[in-house]
């Protein structure tokens, strides 16, 4: 199968405008004749549902939460990029595009990334109009900050709760459409299968999480906005319920899964405190602006941090990277933390963290200044760990945070299944192998507000005069039966272990072998160990309770089952990609200085994996990445 | 940091479904590290229950970093437990002592029926938003974001209100099960911004009247604000009351003396 | 699958919205509007209570010479109230106007309290474990109790000193404010009723006056901190003033009698 990215012809800056002119339009009077199913109501899903509703389509939105406002977009702290150049500091659409492509280590699609930068400007306008209380200057104009090492101040923010405020904006806009009768909202409904007919997406099958009822829903198009798969690691900064099931079910029905090995690690998270830890908490990277990162030189160090003299401290980032010091990019900071912890130099009761020390900053600027800058983060840290960062250094360790891989989509955000679209973190498209800070919110909203609502018309226009496939159609009946059978299987295995147990064990495998650093041996081992654990899962799973009430073990079982299959594909993809790029670091492929070494000759492509069947590994299709506007360079932070 | 562990006795509300009779069940939580969060303590109890072949306890949770608003139970008679300005997921076991008995109950309000065990249905909060908790600005119509300057103080005040995470603790803590703090925070977020002015009074009237279909009335106890994990101020309730009375007059005028 | 245990997706209101009455009656149809009415009527009653207390302080002025006669000062005050705005109005007309206003305020205050209580009872669900109050104080939690005590006391007080029901106050005579008060309150059980009821009244005012600011939307960061003080100050002043009367009479500091004698002895 040939992957057609459908990237329009013409100069980079004109592609999107030309394309908007070229896509087929649906007459306003006809829009109400089309039904679109939107699965997931985070930033991408809610903004898409709201906008499609405003345009006049009949929209049905599905969320497995009790309210759309709970989606994990809400947890993003830092901000959202927008190439407004309000600071007059040389920002432009082109610079944001360039930074994003370069930050993604040249593994993103130029045209998509440029479009993202273009519409970023409109997103800020739209969200301000929605009443998002962005931070303001005293003059009443929007405030900006520089984020994640960017050379310009283009990040808009709302205290430390930008994600929450943007989600509320999109959610409220969608609720306005619910009120107007244009969007029908289904809460506590989890999509458990995609239904296709003659190779085209025609609907979904859902389980009502409160009643266990299995229902079918059909539409002219299905939009998946179901987020990323970071929870495959068990311990991640994702919410507990985040999962890959919707995307994975679509993958099994024929949607290609692209670049699953691209996962992003965030360097400043609070390390796990005990074996029962259920998730990791992220702290804004801005902490690295003033904190110094170190570990004791002696693995057997017993003294308290403050009592360790300078000579016995190993400021490994400052020593290795004198130019950037503690501000090296996320992946570099993360990998180095892993290296020292692996050497036994870790700190804390489980020796699983490194110090982030504010003593020098406090001495230099005074406690008040430092507290003013970081009080909310320091309070959060104290609440979680019980330690006061003003007195003893913080302990930090990297954690999984975002996944750049996802369902393969073309320029229209359509997956390889016609009429099935993917937006937000669920697709793979805009970030390449690594995502810039403050770009996740931007991409979710770009897809939902300004891309999908135009491009979806292209496939809908051809369906004028057709009704959605009836849910009585055998394809729906079969899909419903499959879901029921699968649910029944989970309930009847009657083994000894909970879904959480398997998830935790799987997470350890994925973290150890497909984490910050990967190598051939490890990945091969990962594949066999994941398979063995998966077999055990299907034999030894224990799900108690009933299938016709709220049953989180049952929900979890289905999600973990899909994580097993995804984990194996991640390993396979990581094994196949014999280079290091962005969030994917193969220890075989590094420069003398230990930096990620790309192999542009062989791997300047998107790996899109096509499902075969249960017993045959996926087949890889490569979409060549063509760079007409940027020159591929090697990163260096020495 | 400490590697202390706690042994606790939990009185947990168990209820099969919305229409089933509920009861307290006693569970022992053994060897809980004091670094664990309250919800992780429940995870441990659940693991134990599954090992014993007993149905685990359903409890609401998701992000576990205090922002999504999914979690929330009554802990020893206080919504989200004894820590001020802290959601249940951010409450840590070091705040308890070895040997403590902890009573855990779901939110209770007529509008929040119990779904199962500690999980309740909070969809009335969405109904209040649906009634008018938005600014009608269809995608694509927005003017440049800097075209409407907003004084920093006004933006900050809107942000104070917008910090609400919609957990429902205000309703749960209120002796009248009133939804005033939630509704007023949502209202002030939008009503205080220039963008929210055209629909200000229409929104106020609609949201208040929808709220009253589900919740009780405010007797100004202030329990809501005490329970709020974001410490939303009671002031917003006063603003809402003011705007609501005004809305009856203004909306009549806007509609030309209906 | 098995039959669902609960059918829902959209929430079901626990009460329906009623058909809207014309302005301004529609204000009274919602709880926020009722609270507003409760606050306004509470303010009216509070004003009455305050002036009632201030007027009663005349008790301490004892007897005075008036038109060549010795009279109790407070009896004069009573007559003054009956003669308010005479001759613009006929005698007692304005007093009755004020009384009607007060009766209306009391009626609305009590009706709104009753309907809101019913609404709150229908909205809540009791916790099985002990609820731990953080902000609600004794005053706010006992508003209904103190309100009922005050309402019952009001009836007693009117029967005792305004209507002069003989089985309550056999020695009552119209217009003899000082002596009626003196005779009635010198009985220990009547004094006790007054003391208990006035404590309840002040407790009611302590929360009510603060709550009034919120219900009316009177909120401004510049003077918000003063609202508690105002409420506490009002409650305290009314408590001290009103308690002083039964105490003064029970202790014999004030005794009923002939104003003539009081002046000649004075």
The helix-strand sequence of chain B is: EEHEEEEEHHHHHHH
Q: What order do the strands of the largest sheet of chain A run in, or round the barrel if closed?
A: 5-2-1-9-17
> What is the count of β-strands of chain B?
7
Strand order of the largest sheet of chain B: 2-1-5-3-4
Helical proportion of chain A? 25-40%
Can you say what the CATH homologous superfamily of the domain at 266-399 in chain A is?
Succinate dehydrogenase/fumarate reductase flavoprotein, catalytic domain
Q: What is the name of the CATH class of the largest domain in chain B?
A: Mainly Alpha
Shape of chain B: elongated
What is the end-to-end distance of chain B?
A: 66 Å
Count the E strands of chain A: 19
Helix count of chain B equals 8
How many domains is the backbone of chain B divided into?
2
The major sheet of chain A is characterized as: 5 strands, parallel
Number of helical segments with 4 or more residues of chain A: 17
Largest sheet of chain B: 5 strands, mixed
Strands, helices and their partners?
The complex is a heterotrimer of chains A (638), B (258) and C (266).
Chain A: H1 12-22, H2 28-31, E1 35-39, H3 43-55, E2 58-62, E3 80-81, H4 93-103, H5 110-129, E4 155-156, H6 162-179, E5 183-186, E6 189-197, E7 200-208, E8 214-218, E9 221-224, H7 245-252, E10 257-258, E11 263-269, E12 292-296, E13 313-314, H8 316-320, H9 330-342, E14 354-357, H10 359-365, H11 367-385, E15 394-403, E16 406-407, E17 420-422, H12 440-461, H13 474-492, H14 499-513, H15 520-540, H16 552-576, H17 600-603, E18 605-610, E19 619-624
Parallel strand pairs in A: 1-2, 1-9, 2-5, 9-17
Antiparallel strand pairs in A: 3-4, 6-7, 7-8, 10-16, 10-18, 11-15, 12-13, 12-14, 14-15, 18-19
Chain B: E1 5-14, E2 23-33, H1 38-51, E3 74-75, E4 78-79, E5 101-105, E6 114-116, E7 119-120, H2 123-130, H3 152-162, H4 169-173, H5 180-191, H6 200-214, H7 223-227, H8 235-254
Parallel strand pairs in B: 1-5
Antiparallel strand pairs in B: 1-2, 3-4, 3-5, 6-7
Helix pairs in contact in B: 2-6, 3-5, 5-6, 5-8, 6-8
Chain C: H1 31-56, E1 63-66, E2 69-72, H2 73-82, H3 93-123, H4 138-141, H5 143-162, H6 177-185, H7 188-216, H8 224-250, H9 259-265
Antiparallel strand pairs in C: 1-2
Helix pairs in contact in C: 1-3, 1-7, 1-8, 5-7, 7-8
């Amino acid at each position: 199968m040939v992957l057609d990215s459908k990237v329009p012809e013409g100069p980079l800056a004109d592609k999107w405008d030309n394309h908007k002119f070229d896509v087929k339009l649906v007459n306003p009077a006809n829009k109400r004749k089309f039904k679109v199913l939107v699965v997931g109501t985070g930033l991408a899903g809610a903004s898409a549902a709201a906008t499609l509703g405003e345009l006049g389509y009949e929209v049905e939105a599905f969320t497995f939460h009790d309210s759309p406002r709970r989606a994990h977009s809400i947890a993003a702290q830092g901000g959202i990029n927008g190439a407004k150049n309000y600071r007059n500091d040389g920002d432009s659409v082109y610079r944001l595009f360039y930074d994003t492509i370069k930050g993604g280590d040249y593994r993103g699609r130029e045209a998509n990334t440029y479009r993202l930068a273009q519409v970023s400007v409109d997103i800020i306008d739209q969200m301000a109009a929605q009443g998002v209380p962005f931070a303001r200057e005293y003059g009443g104009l929007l405030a900006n900050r520089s984020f994640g090492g960017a050379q310009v101040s283009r990040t808009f923010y709302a205290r430390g709760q930008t994600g929450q405020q943007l989600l509320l904006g999109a959610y409220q806009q969608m609720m306005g459409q619910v009120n107007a009768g244009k969007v029908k909202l289904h809460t506590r409904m989890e999509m458990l299968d995609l239904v296709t007919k003659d190779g085209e997406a025609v609907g979904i099958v859902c389980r009502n999480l409160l009643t266990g009822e299995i229902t079918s829903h059909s539409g002219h198009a299905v939009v998946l906005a179901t987020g990323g798969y970071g929870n495959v690691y068990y311990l991640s900064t994702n919410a507990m319920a985040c999962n890959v099931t919707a995307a994975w079910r679509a993958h099994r029905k024929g949607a290609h899964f692209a670049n699953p090995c691209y996962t992003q690690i965030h360097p400043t998270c609070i390390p796990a405190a005990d074996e029962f830890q259920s998730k990791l908490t992220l702290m804004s990277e801005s902490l690295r602006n003033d904190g110094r990162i170190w570990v004791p030189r002696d693995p057997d160090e017993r003294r308290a941090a403050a009592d360790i003299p300078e000579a016995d401290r190993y400021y490994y980032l400052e020593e290795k990277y004198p130019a950037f010091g503690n501000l090296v990019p996320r992946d570099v900071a993360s990998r180095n933390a892993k290296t020292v912890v692996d050497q036994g130099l870790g700190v804390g009761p489980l020796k699983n963290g490194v110090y982030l020390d504010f003593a020098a900053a406090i001495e230099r600027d005074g406690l008040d200044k430092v507290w003013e800058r970081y009080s909310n983060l320091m309070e959060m840290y104290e609440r979680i760990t019980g330690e006061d960062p003003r007195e003893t250094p913080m302990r930090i360790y990297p954690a999984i945070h975002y996944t750049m891989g996802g369902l393969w989509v073309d320029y229209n955000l359509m997956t390889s299944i016609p009429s099935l679209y993917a937006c937000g973190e669920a697709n793979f498209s805009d970030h390449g192998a690594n995502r810039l800070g403050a770009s996740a919110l931007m991409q979710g909203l770009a897809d939902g507000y300004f891309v999908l609502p135009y491009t979806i018309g292209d496939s809908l226009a051809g369906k004028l005069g057709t009704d959605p496939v009836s849910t009585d159609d055998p394809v729906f009946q079969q899909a419903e039966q499959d879901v029921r059978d699968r649910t029944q299987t989970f309930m009847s295995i009657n083994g000894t272990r909970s879904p959480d147990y398997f998830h935790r064990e799987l997470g350890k495998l994925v973290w150890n072998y497909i984490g910050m650093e990967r190598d051939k041996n490890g990945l091969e081992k990962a594949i066999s160990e994941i398979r063995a654990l998966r077999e055990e899962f299907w034999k030894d799973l224990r799900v108690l309770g009933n299938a016709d009430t709220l049953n989180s073990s049952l929900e979890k079982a289905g999600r973990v089952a899909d994580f097993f299959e995804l984990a194996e594909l991640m390993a396979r993809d990581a094994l196949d990609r014999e280079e290091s790029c962005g969030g994917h670091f193969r220890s075989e492929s590094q420069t003398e200085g230990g930096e990620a070494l790309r192999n542009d000759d062989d791997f300047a492509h998107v790996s899109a994996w096509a499902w075969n069947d249960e017993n045959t590994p996926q087949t890889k299709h490569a979409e060549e990445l063509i760079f007409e506007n940027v020159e591929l360079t090697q990163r260096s932070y020495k | 940091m400490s590697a202390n562990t706690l042994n606790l006795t939990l009185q947990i509300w168990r209820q099969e479904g919305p229409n089933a009779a509920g009861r307290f069940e006693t569970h022992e939580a053994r060897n809980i590290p004091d670094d664990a969060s309250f919800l992780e303590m429940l995870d441990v109890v659940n693991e134990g229950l599954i090992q014993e072949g007993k149905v685990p306890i359903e409890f609401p949770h998701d992000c576990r970093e205090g922002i999504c608003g999914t979690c929330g139970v009554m802990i020893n008679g206080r919504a989200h437990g004894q820590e001020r300005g802290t959601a249940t997921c951010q409450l840590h076991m070091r705040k308890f002592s070895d040997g403590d008995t902890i009573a855990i109950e779901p939110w209770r309000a007529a509008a929040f029926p119990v779904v199962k065990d500690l999980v309740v249905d909070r969809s009335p909060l969405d109904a209040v938003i649906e009634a008018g908790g938005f600014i009608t600005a269809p995608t694509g119509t927005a003017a440049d974001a800097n075209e409407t300057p907003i004084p920093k103080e006004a933006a900050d005040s809107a942000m104070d209100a917008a910090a609400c995470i919609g957990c429902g603790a205000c309703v749960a803590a209120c002796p009248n099960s009133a939804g005033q703090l939630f509704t007023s925070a949502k209202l002030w977020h939008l009503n205080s911004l220039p963008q929210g002015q055209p629909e200000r009074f229409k929104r106020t009237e609609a949201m208040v009247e929808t709220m009253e279909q589900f919740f009780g009335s405010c007797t100004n106890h202030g329990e809501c604000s005490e329970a709020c994990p974001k410490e939303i101020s009671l002031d917003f309730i006063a603003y809402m009351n003011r705007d609501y009375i005004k809305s009856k007059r203004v909306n009549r005028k806007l509609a030309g003396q209906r | 699958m098995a039959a669902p245990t609960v059918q829902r997706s959209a929430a079901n209101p626990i009460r329906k919205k009623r058909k809207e009455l014309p302005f301004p009656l529609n204000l009274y149809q919602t709880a926020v509007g009722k609270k507003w009415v409760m606050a306004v009527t509470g303010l009216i009653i509070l004003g009455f209570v305050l002036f009632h207390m201030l007027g009663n302080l005349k008790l301490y002025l004892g007897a005075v010479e008036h038109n060549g006669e010795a009279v109790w000062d407070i009896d004069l005050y009573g007559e003054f109230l009956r003669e308010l705005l005479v001759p613009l109005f006929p005698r007692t007309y304005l007093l009755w106007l004020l009384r009607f206003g007060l009766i209306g305020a009391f009626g609305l205050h009590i009706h709104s309290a009753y309907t809101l209580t019913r609404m709150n009872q229908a909205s809540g669900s009791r916790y099985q474990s002990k609820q731990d109050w953080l902000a609600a104080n004794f005053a706010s939690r006992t508003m209904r109790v103190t309100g009922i005590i005050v309402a019952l006391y009001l009836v007693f007080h009117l029967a005792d000193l305004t209507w002069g029901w003989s089985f309550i106050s056999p020695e009552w005579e119209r217009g003899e404010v000082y002596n009626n008060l003196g005779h009635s309150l010198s009985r220990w059980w009547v004094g006790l009723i007054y003391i208990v009821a006035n404590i309840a009244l002040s407790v009611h005012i302590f929360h009510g006056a603060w709550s009034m600011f919120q219900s009316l939307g009177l909120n401004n960061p510049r003077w918000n901190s003063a609202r508690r003080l105002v409420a506490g100050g009002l409650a305290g002043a009314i408590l001290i003033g009103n308690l002083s009367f039964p105490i003064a009479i029970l202790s014999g500091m004030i005794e009923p009698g002939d104003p003539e004698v009081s002046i000649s002895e004075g």
